[in-house]
Design a protein that fits this description.
The chain is an alpha/beta fold and about 375 residues long. About 30% of the residues lie in helices and about 30% in strands. The protein contains 11 helices and 15 strands. Helix 2 runs parallel beside helix 3 and helix 6 packs antiparallel against helix 7. The longest helix is centred in the last third of the chain and has 16 residues. The model has no long low-confidence stretch (mean pLDDT about 95).
């Protein structure tokens, strides 16, 4: 049976905790990582209704987008909603894990899903919050073993440049070494200087994957002591951040874009700032409450910015700057993550030969229009 920590590892492979913003609270909120899990419930927000459902249906782990504990708690009171939910979860051995801004920022997370829904092209990050710096890895391999070492490093994530993988540069030369007492050399004799034909393999890798790549290389390298170097490089690494900006395949009017968004996000109404007949092509977006990024969208030259929870003065700011705004709602711009996360975990757990029940529980938008 799989542990909660193993499920957490899978989530954080998609959305590493290091991507979360400083003010956020992500991770295991309630429970123990060592506990076993048979049933997982995926929700947008932990509510009393969610906890009640989890209790009745024997759920072991609730995975939410919004943290159940966001600000520091001064008390855990059973007569207040948050305290009661935490107490009920503990009482019934239900763990709660939250992936919030790390899931917004991550590649393949909420903002990328929104961009895909709208079929945007040439998509880029709207506001950079994290960069995975690049490292140059160099290793020296005896001739005849370079292919297996190079492949193991590439399979572990080295050598990605654009849409190419396993990129490397290889130079042949002569390596020298003298085995000393206590060594068990793959080549050569104790006390004698050896000259060996070797291949220098150079490749590039994200800093976050260097350890995994080195471990993969060491497992297949034939030498007892492996000579390798890791260098910092000035090339820009992989950029992560909030929001996305890209282009529609064909320009449309603001009104037509609103119709598309209603259909794609299955939302009944939108709040809109801008002239309905205005042609739009360059689209900025941010799931959830993204009002703080309006200035970024303006600076990036977006024709329209799509997000949720727009305030009056934010709308005035956009109107004055000439950028259209579409408020599609906090819930509607984030709910797309639920089924995606469920399918992701099902696939990852099946690869581990673990049968864990995964269910999405969607209570809908708490805000109703009457």
């Amino acid at each position: 049976m799989i542990s909660i920590q193993m499920v957490i590892n899978l989530i954080e492979k998609l959305a590493p905790k290091k991507l979360s913003l400083e003010w956020d609270n992500v991770g295991l909120m309630v429970g123990a990582g060592s506990a076993k899990v048979k049933k997982i419930l995926i929700v947008l927000t932990v509510t009393p209704g969610v906890v009640d459902y989890a209790v009745v249906n024997g759920v072991d782990l609730i995975i939410s987008h919004h943290p159940v504990i966001f600000k520091p708690l001064n008390s855990i009171r059973q007569d207040l909603p948050v305290g009661k939910m935490i107490i009920e979860a503990i009482k019934h051995d239900i763990a709660i894990y939250s992936a919030h801004t790390n899931l917004d920022v991550a590649k393949g997370g909420i903002n990328d899903l929104l961009a895909q829904k709208l079929e945007l092209e040439n998509v880029e990050v709207l506001e950079k919050t994290f960069e995975d710096s690049l490292k140059k890895i160099v290793v020296y391999v005896p001739k005849g073993y370079e292919d297996v070492v190079r492949d193991s490093m590439g399979n572990a994530g080295a050598g990605h440049i654009g849409n190419y993988s396993h990129c490397s540069f290889n130079v042949s030369g002569i390596g020298t070494f003298k085995p000393l007492e206590g060594s068990n050399p793959f080549l050569g004799q104790l006390g004698e200087l050896e000259k060996v034909e070797e291949v220098r393999i150079e490749t590039i890798a994200p800093a976050s994957r260097v350890k995994k790549i080195i471990n993969a290389m060491l497992k297949v390298h034939p030498y007892e002591e492996v000579a390798y170097d890791i260098y910092p490089v000035e090339n820009e690494g992989c950029t992560f951040g909030l929001g996305r900006i890209g282009y529609l395949k064909t320009p449309v009017t603001l009104y037509e874009l609103c119709t598309i968004i209603k259909q794609k996000l299955e939302v009944e109404f939108l709040r809109v700032v801008g002239e309905p007949r205005k042609k739009v092509s360059k689209i900025a977006l941010c799931g959830g409450a993204g009002g703080s990024l309006i200035s970024k969208a303006i600076f990036a030259g977006a024709d329209v910015y799509i997000t949720g929870d727009i305030k009056y003065h934010e709308a005035e700011e956009a109107k004055a700057a000439g950028i259209a705004l579409i408020d599609a709602g906090h819930y509607s711009t984030e709910k797309i993550i639920l089924n995606f996360l469920a399918e992701y975990l099902k696939k990852e757990l099946q690869a581990l030969d673990n049968e864990v029940s995964i269910e999405v529980f969607d209570e809908g938008d708490p805000i109703k229009i009457v």
